[in-house]
Amino acid sequence: MSGYAFPFPPPPPPPGVDWWYRIQVPAQPWAVGQVRDSVRSALWRHGCGVRADEACLLASELVTNGIVHAKCPVSACLSGRCGSIVRIEVYDPAATLPQTRRAGADDEAGRGLALIDALAAAWGTRLHPRDGGKSVWCELSWPC
Predict the structure, then answer these.
(1) Continuous segment of H or E residues that includes residue 138
(2) Which pLDDT tens digit goes with each residue over 55-75?
(3) Model pTM score
(4) Which of 4, 18, 53, 120 could form a cystine bridge with 138, CB 3.0-4.6 A?
(5) What mean pLDDT comes out for the span 81-102?
(6) Are 51 and 144 in contact (CB under 8 A)?
């Protein structure tokens, strides 16, 4: 899939959100750091900086999984409802859903979904039949 363009435009902002950002992420390791910076900046801008570390970790995991497994650029969306939730959703063109697994003590990979499950208030996946891809999302409560 080399030379592949960004997968597909994500859907419009979900109803009822107060703010929404889309980040086009190239399939490069350095891009994950830029996503973390964007997430941190957005959360501080909207008064929820106290959740920035957790949100950055979750965004890193979702984006890295998308890039590694889809082997192409991904789209990341960040949205929030003030005082309610922060949602991170990553879209990629691969229709294969992520599988949780038990990583061994010496394994270098395989803990991402366990981290997401432990830190997020909710998480899940959606297939996008029209576009042939999927999204993986998670939500953090916003007690700020």
Answers:
(1) strand 133-141
(2) 999 999 999 999 988 888 999
(3) 0.86
(4) 120
(5) 85
(6) yes
Whether 46 shows a pLDDT value over 60: the answer reads yes
- What sign results for the dihedral spanned by CA atoms 39, 41, 44, 46? negative
The whole-number pLDDT of residue 3 equals 45
User: Residue ranges per domain, the chain?
Assistant: 19-141
Residue reference for tokens 């570390």: 53
Report d(CA 134, CA 125) in Å as an integer.
7
Give φ, ψ of 58 to 5 degrees.
Answer: -65, -45
Burial of 30 (0-12, 13-18, 19+ CB in 10 A): exposed
CATH number for 19-141 (one of 3.30.565.10, 3.50.50.60, 2.60.120.200, 3.20.20.70): it is 3.30.565.10
114 residue type, one letter? A
Would you state the structure tokens that stand for residue 54, as one six-digit string? Answer: 């957790």
